Amino acid sequence: MKKSFKIISVVLALVLVIGCFAACQKDDKTKEPQKEVLVMATNAEFPPYEYREGDAVTGIDAEIAQLIADKLGMELKIEDVAFESIIPGVQSGKYDFGMAGMTVTEDRLKDVIFSDSYATGVQVVIIKEDSDIASLDDVAGKKIGVQTNTTGDIYATDDYGEENIVRYENGAVAVQALLNGKVDCVVIDNEPAKSYVAANEGLKILETEYMVEDYAICFAKDNTELKDKVNTALNELIDDGSVQKIIDKYIKA
Ligand code: GLN
Prior knowledge:
This protein is α/β, with parallel strands linked by helices. It folds into two domains: 37-118 and 216-250, Periplasmic binding protein-like II (D-Maltodextrin-Binding Protein, domain 2); 122-212, Periplasmic binding protein-like II (D-Maltodextrin-Binding Protein, domain 2, 3-Layer(aba) Sandwich), CATH 3.40.190.10. The chain has eight helices and 14 strands. It has helices at residues 2-31, 60-72, 83-92, 151-160, 171-179, 190-199, 224-239, 242-250, and strands at residues 37-42, 45-46, 50-53, 56-58, 75-80, 97-98, 112-114, 119-128, 144-147, 165-168, 185-189, 203-205, 211-215, 218-220. The strands form four sheets. Strands 8, 9, 10, 11, 12 and 13 form a six-stranded mixed sheet that branches. Strands 5-1-6 form a three-stranded parallel sheet, with helices on both faces. The mean pLDDT is 91. The structure holds glutamine. Glutamine binds at residues 43, 46, 83, 100-103, 121, 147, 150-151, 189.
């Protein structure tokens, strides 16, 4: 009798301990639900839209994306990849979306779909202060540095000919080539252009603007569900002034 009582007590105690353990775990889960991860691809060589601060990618796009993820109750993860890898990676599903000061173009619309636009970009020409290039016409026949597969690359190739284009992995390397005299100018978006000119002596931006364009977020063609959700969040953030606030924080008028 005594022995079976002991066994029952031990079993009961075990049941209690296991039950409590399970309950506690369940409790933990309800306190901190696992958030679904939203993977963004960018190229963090495009200040002030995206650049590195230590290990973290920061900038206008990173901040807007974080607010969108917050609205969707998802966890944002940013992958820093080559600009030309963004669209293929989004198409294959490796990344959920691409956000990289990316211009909406007819050609890209064959491969991906875009959100509504959240910012305007302008293609400009960076030259050396003592350059003999004084207008867009003077660019003809000159060596033009561009970032591979950007709209600067695409337009300049169309307008000035493949033989005059020198392609680089990112804007920073293209600007370095200009400083070293390997190219005569660099065609790039105006905001990164301003950063590069501010960071390097002896450079200026040609006054005539080359091309005005819209930036948007890209998604795989069949991912209209995510695109619609992001669009709703994005438009709320545009309407309540959050997007403008982030842009103003990085771009001083
Ligand atoms: N706006 C340009 C484009 O979409 C450049 C973008 C970038 O270099 N990150 O091609």
